[in-house]
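User: Show me a protein chain along with its predicted structure.
Assistant: Here is one chain, sequence first, then structure tokens.
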Amino acid sequence: MDKAELLISKWRAEGIDMVYPLIFKFRTSVVGEGWLAGVELRGACVVTKEARGEYIAHGLKPGGVAGVGSTVTEAYLAYKEDVQTVLYDMAGDASLGAFRDGVLEFFESTDAWGEEKFADGRLMVAAGKVDSSLPQEPKPELGARVVELELRARNNPVLPAGENLPVRLAA
């Protein structure tokens, strides 16, 4: 039995049919008291196809949030919506500096289970065992960035809220 078959056997014992290691990049603007910030996340999540048919996106970077859907895309979009909600909640009455620190801390939060599943999923993608039309990206670089924007500027360095860049499989 090769490594891919061992992983599938292990996942099935956990009630998981497949693991999709996704990387993404999205940018949004967040308004706080007296400040406007552009947030760019180049993050990762693990979407599992559960034996009962639903897909669950487990946050990796940032962690601590999840999304559920009937497809990989729906689960990812639900996860992304939860991430955005956390960003808006963090802004509250925080200063820009406190918001920036909070975003970076939030981004770095992860857990061992998610890291293990992400690594296992990358092995499956590299072995050609993941059936997906998503493009692959080997050696993805992850990170978060928060920049202050001018409240009335036309030439801000961040894309408008909600504009996304393609989701990819980490290979």
